[in-house]
Amino acid sequence: MFKQLHETTTDQKQMATIGREMMDFSENASMAGLKDKQIAVFNMLSDLGAKLTQVGGLFGPREENFSESEFEIVRAWTEDGWKPQEGHACTRTTF
Description:
Elements: H1 10-28, H2 36-53, H3 68-80
């Protein structure tokens, strides 16, 4: 049996899980009635979530590649349960 040269750590797996939660939330959130600046928060959340899922990968980001504001968003998401305010329910009947 071959030894794995690169195993992801428990912390890296946890960061990936948080990243997937962020991306899922922003993907499924209602954008109805929101303005561009409000929608930008969801886009930022998706970008940060994608970045978190790549930590621990061979060419993925490292801790020093994250800004203080990104660390603060992750902390607020995990510790405070922060979520952006969604728009109102979609009234569209055809998709």
